[in-house]
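Sequence in, structure out. First:
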Amino acid sequence: MQNLISTILVGVDFTEKSLNAVKMAAHMGTRHKAKIILFHNITNHSVIDRTGKQVIGAETINENYNKADQALKKLETSLKEEYPVPEFKIIIKNDTLIHGINTVIDSESVDLVICGTSGKQNFAQLILGSLSYQILTGADCSVLLVPENCSKYSFEKILVPVRVLEDLADKIDLSVAIAKKNKGVISLLGISTEEDLFKIKEAYQSVRTSLSIKAQEYDSRFLLTRDKATQISKLSQDDNADIIILNYKDEDGWKSFFLENFFKQIINHTDIPLFFLKNRRTKSNNNSDDNVGFDITMPCPG
Protein backbone atom coordinates (compact mmCIF):
# COMPACT_ATOMS: atom_id res chain seq x y z
CA MET A 1 0.00 0.00 0.00
CA GLN A 2 1.23 3.50 -0.86
CA ASN A 3 2.71 5.40 2.08
CA LEU A 4 0.17 8.17 2.58
CA ILE A 5 2.23 9.86 5.31
CA SER A 6 5.75 10.51 4.01
CA THR A 7 6.55 13.91 5.56
CA ILE A 8 5.37 15.18 8.95
CA LEU A 9 5.69 18.73 10.27
CA VAL A 10 5.45 19.15 14.05
CA GLY A 11 5.24 22.55 15.74
CA VAL A 12 7.78 22.99 18.54
CA ASP A 13 7.69 25.77 21.11
CA PHE A 14 9.39 23.69 23.87
CA THR A 15 6.33 23.55 26.13
CA GLU A 16 5.18 20.18 27.47
CA LYS A 17 2.26 19.93 25.06
CA SER A 18 4.42 20.61 22.01
CA LEU A 19 7.08 18.15 23.19
CA ASN A 20 4.33 15.56 23.60
CA ALA A 21 3.32 16.28 20.00
CA VAL A 22 6.97 15.75 19.00
CA LYS A 23 6.89 12.36 20.69
CA MET A 24 3.75 11.44 18.74
CA ALA A 25 5.43 12.58 15.52
CA ALA A 26 8.49 10.45 16.28
CA HIS A 27 6.38 7.33 16.85
CA MET A 28 4.38 7.93 13.68
CA GLY A 29 7.50 8.74 11.70
CA THR A 30 9.02 5.45 12.79
CA ARG A 31 5.96 3.43 11.79
CA HIS A 32 5.40 5.20 8.46
CA LYS A 33 9.11 5.68 7.65
CA ALA A 34 8.36 9.38 7.29
CA LYS A 35 10.63 12.42 7.40
CA ILE A 36 9.95 14.67 10.40
CA ILE A 37 10.31 18.45 10.26
CA LEU A 38 10.80 20.15 13.63
CA PHE A 39 9.22 23.54 13.00
CA HIS A 40 9.58 26.69 15.08
CA ASN A 41 8.24 30.12 14.19
CA ILE A 42 9.49 33.54 15.26
CA THR A 43 7.01 36.38 14.79
CA ASN A 44 7.98 40.02 14.39
CA HIS A 45 6.70 42.85 16.57
CA SER A 46 5.93 46.08 14.78
CA VAL A 47 4.58 49.53 15.42
CA ILE A 48 2.83 51.82 12.97
CA ASP A 49 3.72 55.50 12.94
CA ARG A 50 3.66 58.31 10.41
CA THR A 51 6.42 56.66 8.40
CA GLY A 52 4.53 53.38 8.17
CA LYS A 53 5.02 49.98 9.78
CA GLN A 54 8.31 49.55 11.65
CA VAL A 55 9.66 46.23 12.91
CA ILE A 56 10.96 46.44 16.46
CA GLY A 57 13.11 44.17 18.56
CA ALA A 58 15.35 42.88 15.74
CA GLU A 59 18.15 42.06 18.19
CA THR A 60 15.75 40.08 20.38
CA ILE A 61 14.48 38.19 17.33
CA ASN A 62 18.04 37.26 16.32
CA GLU A 63 18.80 36.16 19.87
CA ASN A 64 15.67 34.01 19.99
CA TYR A 65 16.48 32.56 16.60
CA ASN A 66 19.88 31.40 17.83
CA LYS A 67 18.41 30.00 21.04
CA ALA A 68 15.71 28.13 19.13
CA ASP A 69 18.24 26.74 16.67
CA GLN A 70 20.44 25.39 19.47
CA ALA A 71 17.47 23.92 21.35
CA LEU A 72 16.10 22.26 18.22
CA LYS A 73 19.49 20.75 17.38
CA LYS A 74 19.69 19.33 20.90
CA LEU A 75 16.17 17.92 20.55
CA GLU A 76 17.04 16.45 17.15
CA THR A 77 20.10 14.69 18.57
CA SER A 78 18.09 13.09 21.37
CA LEU A 79 15.36 11.97 18.95
CA LYS A 80 17.87 10.39 16.58
CA GLU A 81 19.23 8.32 19.45
CA GLU A 82 15.78 6.96 20.34
CA TYR A 83 13.76 6.72 17.12
CA PRO A 84 14.75 5.10 13.79
CA VAL A 85 13.15 7.85 11.71
CA PRO A 86 14.59 8.13 8.16
CA GLU A 87 15.29 11.86 8.48
CA PHE A 88 14.84 14.75 10.88
CA LYS A 89 14.97 18.32 9.59
CA ILE A 90 14.93 21.64 11.46
CA ILE A 91 13.12 24.63 9.98
CA ILE A 92 12.79 28.01 11.70
CA LYS A 93 10.60 30.66 10.09
CA ASN A 94 10.27 34.38 10.79
CA ASP A 95 6.70 34.75 9.65
CA THR A 96 3.08 34.64 10.74
CA LEU A 97 2.41 31.17 12.12
CA ILE A 98 -0.04 29.91 9.48
CA HIS A 99 1.79 31.45 6.53
CA GLY A 100 5.07 30.00 7.81
CA ILE A 101 3.55 26.54 8.17
CA ASN A 102 1.98 26.66 4.71
CA THR A 103 5.24 27.79 3.13
CA VAL A 104 6.91 24.68 4.52
CA ILE A 105 3.96 22.45 3.56
CA ASP A 106 4.41 23.63 -0.03
CA SER A 107 8.22 23.52 -0.21
CA GLU A 108 8.63 20.19 1.62
CA SER A 109 5.48 18.41 0.35
CA VAL A 110 4.23 17.92 3.92
CA ASP A 111 1.43 15.36 4.33
CA LEU A 112 0.59 15.97 7.99
CA VAL A 113 0.94 18.76 10.54
CA ILE A 114 0.99 17.67 14.20
CA CYS A 115 0.43 20.09 17.05
CA GLY A 116 -0.29 19.82 20.75
CA THR A 117 -3.53 21.11 22.19
CA SER A 118 -4.93 21.65 25.66
CA GLY A 119 -8.40 20.77 24.38
CA LYS A 120 -9.81 23.74 26.30
CA GLN A 121 -10.66 27.29 25.32
CA ASN A 122 -10.89 30.36 27.49
CA PHE A 123 -13.15 33.28 26.56
CA ALA A 124 -10.49 35.09 24.50
CA GLN A 125 -9.73 31.93 22.55
CA LEU A 126 -13.43 31.41 21.90
CA ILE A 127 -13.55 34.83 20.27
CA LEU A 128 -10.17 34.87 18.52
CA GLY A 129 -9.73 31.15 17.94
CA SER A 130 -7.22 28.97 19.74
CA LEU A 131 -3.93 28.31 17.98
CA SER A 132 -4.75 24.65 17.44
CA TYR A 133 -8.02 25.76 15.84
CA GLN A 134 -6.16 28.30 13.69
CA ILE A 135 -3.75 25.60 12.53
CA LEU A 136 -6.60 23.21 11.85
CA THR A 137 -8.50 25.71 9.73
CA GLY A 138 -5.45 27.40 8.18
CA ALA A 139 -3.00 24.60 7.33
CA ASP A 140 -2.99 23.40 3.72
CA CYS A 141 -2.77 19.69 4.57
CA SER A 142 -4.09 17.18 7.10
CA VAL A 143 -3.76 18.07 10.79
CA LEU A 144 -3.36 15.82 13.84
CA LEU A 145 -4.25 17.45 17.16
CA VAL A 146 -2.60 15.72 20.13
CA PRO A 147 -4.06 16.45 23.59
CA GLU A 148 -1.57 17.49 26.23
CA ASN A 149 -2.42 14.50 28.44
CA CYS A 150 -2.16 11.93 25.63
CA SER A 151 0.20 9.12 26.70
CA LYS A 152 -0.47 6.45 24.07
CA TYR A 153 1.31 6.80 20.76
CA SER A 154 -0.01 3.81 18.83
CA PHE A 155 -3.49 3.46 17.36
CA GLU A 156 -4.88 0.01 18.01
CA LYS A 157 -8.54 1.07 17.92
CA ILE A 158 -9.35 3.62 15.25
CA LEU A 159 -12.74 5.35 15.28
CA VAL A 160 -13.80 6.30 11.74
CA PRO A 161 -17.12 8.19 11.54
CA VAL A 162 -19.03 8.28 8.26
CA ARG A 163 -20.85 11.60 8.69
CA VAL A 164 -20.18 13.50 5.43
CA LEU A 165 -19.29 12.38 1.92
CA GLU A 166 -16.40 14.77 1.12
CA ASP A 167 -13.11 12.86 0.52
CA LEU A 168 -14.64 9.74 2.07
CA ALA A 169 -12.73 7.28 -0.14
CA ASP A 170 -9.44 9.05 0.72
CA LYS A 171 -10.31 8.94 4.41
CA ILE A 172 -10.95 5.19 4.26
CA ASP A 173 -7.64 4.60 2.44
CA LEU A 174 -5.87 6.64 5.12
CA SER A 175 -7.67 4.80 7.94
CA VAL A 176 -6.69 1.42 6.49
CA ALA A 177 -3.07 2.58 6.07
CA ILE A 178 -2.93 3.70 9.71
CA ALA A 179 -4.59 0.46 10.85
CA LYS A 180 -2.03 -1.62 8.96
CA LYS A 181 0.89 0.31 10.47
CA ASN A 182 -0.54 -0.14 13.97
CA LYS A 183 -2.02 -3.66 13.58
CA GLY A 184 -5.23 -1.89 14.55
CA VAL A 185 -8.97 -2.44 14.24
CA ILE A 186 -11.26 0.12 12.61
CA SER A 187 -14.43 0.99 14.49
CA LEU A 188 -16.73 2.25 11.75
CA LEU A 189 -19.49 4.62 12.84
CA GLY A 190 -22.25 5.66 10.50
CA ILE A 191 -23.74 8.81 11.98
CA SER A 192 -26.47 10.90 10.38
CA THR A 193 -29.40 13.24 10.79
CA GLU A 194 -32.80 12.20 9.45
CA GLU A 195 -32.37 14.58 6.49
CA ASP A 196 -29.17 12.86 5.29
CA LEU A 197 -30.08 9.33 6.33
CA PHE A 198 -30.35 7.78 2.87
CA LYS A 199 -27.08 9.07 1.42
CA ILE A 200 -25.06 8.52 4.61
CA LYS A 201 -26.40 5.00 5.09
CA GLU A 202 -25.60 4.18 1.47
CA ALA A 203 -22.04 5.50 1.92
CA TYR A 204 -21.69 3.60 5.20
CA GLN A 205 -22.66 0.31 3.53
CA SER A 206 -20.23 1.03 0.70
CA VAL A 207 -17.41 1.59 3.20
CA ARG A 208 -18.19 -1.71 4.93
CA THR A 209 -17.88 -3.47 1.58
CA SER A 210 -14.62 -1.66 0.85
CA LEU A 211 -13.11 -2.66 4.20
CA SER A 212 -14.04 -6.28 3.58
CA ILE A 213 -12.40 -6.19 0.15
CA LYS A 214 -9.27 -4.67 1.68
CA ALA A 215 -9.27 -7.47 4.29
CA GLN A 216 -9.27 -4.88 7.07
CA GLU A 217 -10.58 -5.98 10.46
CA TYR A 218 -13.42 -3.75 11.61
CA ASP A 219 -16.59 -3.48 13.66
CA SER A 220 -19.47 -1.19 12.78
CA ARG A 221 -22.63 0.51 14.00
CA PHE A 222 -25.03 3.20 12.83
CA LEU A 223 -26.43 6.08 14.86
CA LEU A 224 -29.18 8.58 14.08
CA THR A 225 -28.59 11.91 15.84
CA ARG A 226 -28.34 15.66 15.32
CA ASP A 227 -25.59 16.03 17.91
CA LYS A 228 -22.79 14.37 15.97
CA ALA A 229 -19.76 15.86 17.72
CA THR A 230 -20.95 14.96 21.22
CA GLN A 231 -21.93 11.45 20.20
CA ILE A 232 -18.63 10.81 18.42
CA SER A 233 -16.74 11.99 21.53
CA LYS A 234 -18.88 9.83 23.82
CA LEU A 235 -18.43 6.72 21.69
CA SER A 236 -14.67 7.27 21.54
CA GLN A 237 -14.64 7.18 25.35
CA ASP A 238 -16.99 4.19 25.61
CA ASP A 239 -14.86 2.21 23.14
CA ASN A 240 -11.48 3.34 24.51
CA ALA A 241 -10.55 4.51 21.01
CA ASP A 242 -6.97 5.67 20.41
CA ILE A 243 -7.67 8.11 17.57
CA ILE A 244 -10.57 9.57 15.60
CA ILE A 245 -10.18 10.13 11.87
CA LEU A 246 -12.42 12.86 10.47
CA ASN A 247 -13.08 14.53 7.14
CA TYR A 248 -12.17 18.20 7.06
CA LYS A 249 -15.77 19.34 6.91
CA ASP A 250 -17.26 21.68 9.50
CA GLU A 251 -20.99 21.04 9.33
CA ASP A 252 -21.73 23.85 11.78
CA GLY A 253 -19.43 26.49 10.34
CA TRP A 254 -22.29 29.00 10.23
CA LYS A 255 -22.41 29.26 14.01
CA SER A 256 -21.29 32.48 15.67
CA PHE A 257 -18.19 33.12 17.77
CA PHE A 258 -20.26 32.47 20.87
CA LEU A 259 -21.36 28.98 19.82
CA GLU A 260 -19.36 25.82 19.25
CA ASN A 261 -19.21 24.60 15.67
CA PHE A 262 -18.46 20.93 14.95
CA PHE A 263 -14.67 21.39 15.05
CA LYS A 264 -14.67 23.27 18.36
CA GLN A 265 -17.07 20.77 19.94
CA ILE A 266 -14.97 17.79 18.95
CA ILE A 267 -11.72 19.47 20.09
CA ASN A 268 -13.13 20.62 23.42
CA HIS A 269 -14.88 17.39 24.36
CA THR A 270 -12.45 14.71 23.16
CA ASP A 271 -9.30 13.66 25.00
CA ILE A 272 -7.66 11.50 22.30
CA PRO A 273 -5.81 12.48 19.11
CA LEU A 274 -7.96 13.90 16.31
CA PHE A 275 -6.83 13.38 12.72
CA PHE A 276 -8.50 15.78 10.26
CA LEU A 277 -8.00 14.69 6.65
CA LYS A 278 -7.47 17.68 4.40
CA ASN A 279 -6.24 17.09 0.88
CA ARG A 280 -3.35 19.32 -0.11
CA ARG A 281 -5.24 20.34 -3.24
CA THR A 282 -7.56 22.31 -0.93
CA LYS A 283 -5.87 25.59 -0.11
CA SER A 284 -6.92 27.73 2.83
CA ASN A 285 -7.64 31.43 2.59
CA ASN A 286 -6.06 32.24 5.93
CA ASN A 287 -2.54 33.04 4.77
CA SER A 288 -1.25 36.52 5.39
CA ASP A 289 1.88 38.22 4.14
CA ASP A 290 1.91 40.55 7.12
CA ASN A 291 4.69 39.30 9.37
CA VAL A 292 3.27 40.77 12.56
CA GLY A 293 2.35 39.18 15.86
CA PHE A 294 2.00 39.59 19.58
CA ASP A 295 4.63 37.05 20.59
CA ILE A 296 8.32 36.76 19.84
CA THR A 297 8.26 32.96 19.70
CA MET A 298 5.68 30.57 18.35
CA PRO A 299 2.94 30.36 20.97
CA CYS A 300 1.78 27.06 22.37
CA PRO A 301 -0.73 25.40 20.06
CA GLY A 302 -3.85 24.97 22.16
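Second:
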Amino acid sequence: MIEMKVAGIALDAVTRSPIVLLKDGSDRRALPIYIGQEQAKSIIGALENQRPPRPLTHDLLTNILDAWEMSLSKVVIHSLQDNTFYAVLCLTKGEETREVDCRPSDAIALALRTGSPIWVMEEVIADASIPVDRDADEEEREAFRNFIANLRPEDFIERDRHQSSES
Protein backbone atom coordinates (compact mmCIF):
# COMPACT_ATOMS: atom_id res chain seq x y z
CA MET A 1 0.00 0.00 0.00
CA ILE A 2 1.08 3.55 -0.66
CA GLU A 3 0.07 6.49 1.50
CA MET A 4 -1.48 9.31 -0.48
CA LYS A 5 -2.42 12.90 0.36
CA VAL A 6 -5.23 15.02 -1.02
CA ALA A 7 -3.73 17.45 -3.53
CA GLY A 8 -7.05 19.17 -4.19
CA ILE A 9 -10.28 19.14 -6.14
CA ALA A 10 -10.43 19.71 -9.89
CA LEU A 11 -13.21 19.79 -12.45
CA ASP A 12 -13.27 17.55 -15.50
CA ALA A 13 -12.96 19.90 -18.48
CA VAL A 14 -15.64 18.07 -20.48
CA THR A 15 -18.21 16.88 -17.94
CA ARG A 16 -17.55 19.53 -15.26
CA SER A 17 -17.66 16.68 -12.72
CA PRO A 18 -15.51 17.12 -9.62
CA ILE A 19 -12.38 15.01 -9.24
CA VAL A 20 -10.43 14.54 -6.02
CA LEU A 21 -6.74 14.26 -6.77
CA LEU A 22 -4.55 12.15 -4.49
CA LYS A 23 -0.74 12.33 -4.73
CA ASP A 24 1.93 10.03 -3.38
CA GLY A 25 4.60 11.29 -0.99
CA SER A 26 7.12 11.93 -3.76
CA ASP A 27 4.59 13.85 -5.88
CA ARG A 28 5.43 11.48 -8.73
CA ARG A 29 2.01 9.88 -9.18
CA ALA A 30 -1.50 11.23 -8.91
CA LEU A 31 -4.72 9.29 -8.58
CA PRO A 32 -7.79 11.10 -9.94
CA ILE A 33 -11.14 9.90 -8.53
CA TYR A 34 -14.44 11.25 -9.84
CA ILE A 35 -16.74 12.22 -6.98
CA GLY A 36 -20.11 13.85 -6.41
CA GLN A 37 -20.74 17.55 -5.86
CA GLU A 38 -21.64 17.13 -2.18
CA GLN A 39 -18.53 15.08 -1.44
CA ALA A 40 -16.42 17.68 -3.26
CA LYS A 41 -17.91 20.42 -1.05
CA SER A 42 -17.23 18.33 2.04
CA ILE A 43 -13.62 17.64 1.06
CA ILE A 44 -13.00 21.31 0.24
CA GLY A 45 -14.53 22.29 3.58
CA ALA A 46 -12.17 19.93 5.40
CA LEU A 47 -9.14 21.11 3.41
CA GLU A 48 -9.98 24.71 4.31
CA ASN A 49 -10.76 23.86 7.96
CA GLN A 50 -14.27 25.28 7.62
CA ARG A 51 -16.56 24.70 10.59
CA PRO A 52 -20.25 24.76 9.66
CA PRO A 53 -22.69 26.17 12.25
CA ARG A 54 -24.34 22.72 12.46
CA PRO A 55 -22.62 19.39 11.73
CA LEU A 56 -22.91 18.19 8.17
CA THR A 57 -22.90 14.45 7.41
CA HIS A 58 -19.15 13.85 7.62
CA ASP A 59 -18.90 16.06 10.71
CA LEU A 60 -21.75 14.09 12.27
CA LEU A 61 -20.01 10.79 11.65
CA THR A 62 -16.80 12.17 13.16
CA ASN A 63 -18.81 13.27 16.21
CA ILE A 64 -20.35 9.78 16.50
CA LEU A 65 -16.90 8.17 16.37
CA ASP A 66 -15.74 10.52 19.16
CA ALA A 67 -18.86 9.89 21.27
CA TRP A 68 -18.37 6.12 21.03
CA GLU A 69 -14.62 6.44 21.67
CA MET A 70 -13.79 4.97 18.29
CA SER A 71 -11.08 6.16 15.96
CA LEU A 72 -10.53 6.03 12.25
CA SER A 73 -7.06 4.49 12.05
CA LYS A 74 -6.88 4.72 8.27
CA VAL A 75 -8.84 4.50 5.06
CA VAL A 76 -7.85 2.11 2.31
CA ILE A 77 -8.80 2.45 -1.35
CA HIS A 78 -8.43 -1.20 -2.21
CA SER A 79 -9.81 -1.89 -5.66
CA LEU A 80 -11.02 -0.55 -8.97
CA GLN A 81 -13.75 -2.48 -10.77
CA ASP A 82 -15.58 -1.27 -13.88
CA ASN A 83 -14.27 2.28 -13.35
CA THR A 84 -15.54 2.32 -9.75
CA PHE A 85 -13.17 2.69 -6.81
CA TYR A 86 -13.82 0.78 -3.57
CA ALA A 87 -12.65 1.74 -0.09
CA VAL A 88 -12.94 0.74 3.54
CA LEU A 89 -12.82 2.64 6.79
CA CYS A 90 -10.56 0.94 9.35
CA LEU A 91 -12.19 1.70 12.70
CA THR A 92 -10.74 0.87 16.09
CA LYS A 93 -12.16 0.83 19.60
CA GLY A 94 -9.71 -0.37 22.19
CA GLU A 95 -8.07 -3.50 20.79
CA GLU A 96 -10.92 -4.21 18.37
CA THR A 97 -10.66 -3.25 14.69
CA ARG A 98 -13.41 -3.33 12.08
CA GLU A 99 -13.48 -2.55 8.38
CA VAL A 100 -16.53 -0.82 6.98
CA ASP A 101 -17.26 -0.56 3.25
CA CYS A 102 -17.31 3.04 2.09
CA ARG A 103 -17.18 5.20 -1.02
CA PRO A 104 -13.69 6.64 -1.46
CA SER A 105 -15.05 10.19 -1.46
CA ASP A 106 -16.69 9.69 1.95
CA ALA A 107 -13.58 7.92 3.25
CA ILE A 108 -11.40 10.84 2.13
CA ALA A 109 -13.75 13.41 3.69
CA LEU A 110 -13.63 11.53 7.01
CA ALA A 111 -9.86 11.01 6.85
CA LEU A 112 -9.34 14.75 6.41
CA ARG A 113 -11.55 15.54 9.40
CA THR A 114 -9.86 13.00 11.67
CA GLY A 115 -6.28 13.40 10.46
CA SER A 116 -6.24 9.75 9.41
CA PRO A 117 -3.96 8.44 6.66
CA ILE A 118 -5.25 7.56 3.21
CA TRP A 119 -3.74 4.38 1.78
CA VAL A 120 -4.12 3.05 -1.74
CA MET A 121 -3.29 -0.47 -2.89
CA GLU A 122 -0.41 -0.64 -5.39
CA GLU A 123 -2.53 -2.38 -8.01
CA VAL A 124 -5.07 0.48 -7.91
CA ILE A 125 -2.29 3.01 -8.41
CA ALA A 126 -0.82 0.92 -11.23
CA ASP A 127 -4.21 0.75 -12.96
CA ALA A 128 -5.46 4.30 -12.47
CA SER A 129 -2.69 6.74 -11.57
CA ILE A 130 -1.27 9.35 -13.88
CA PRO A 131 2.39 10.42 -13.89
CA VAL A 132 2.99 13.88 -12.48
CA ASP A 133 6.75 14.35 -12.90
CA ARG A 134 7.70 12.90 -16.27
CA ASP A 135 11.24 14.32 -16.09
CA ALA A 136 11.93 12.54 -12.78
CA ASP A 137 10.46 9.32 -14.21
CA GLU A 138 12.77 9.54 -17.23
CA GLU A 139 15.79 10.29 -15.01
CA GLU A 140 14.98 7.21 -12.92
CA ARG A 141 14.63 5.04 -16.04
CA GLU A 142 17.93 6.35 -17.40
CA ALA A 143 19.72 5.70 -14.10
CA PHE A 144 18.36 2.14 -14.07
CA ARG A 145 19.46 1.57 -17.68
CA ASN A 146 22.95 2.78 -16.76
CA PHE A 147 23.02 0.53 -13.71
CA ILE A 148 22.04 -2.52 -15.80
CA ALA A 149 24.50 -1.63 -18.56
CA ASN A 150 27.38 -1.51 -16.07
CA LEU A 151 26.54 -4.74 -14.21
CA ARG A 152 29.14 -7.49 -14.39
CA PRO A 153 28.73 -11.16 -13.42
CA GLU A 154 31.29 -10.58 -10.66
CA ASP A 155 28.89 -8.12 -9.01
CA PHE A 156 26.40 -10.94 -8.40
CA ILE A 157 29.09 -13.23 -7.03
CA GLU A 158 30.33 -10.55 -4.61
CA ARG A 159 26.79 -9.77 -3.46
CA ASP A 160 26.02 -13.46 -2.95
CA ARG A 161 29.18 -13.93 -0.86
CA HIS A 162 28.33 -10.86 1.22
CA GLN A 163 24.78 -12.06 1.93
CA SER A 164 26.01 -15.58 2.80
CA SER A 165 28.47 -14.21 5.36
CA GLU A 166 25.68 -12.20 7.08
CA SER A 167 23.50 -15.29 7.63
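Remark: The two ends are 29 Å apart (CA to CA).
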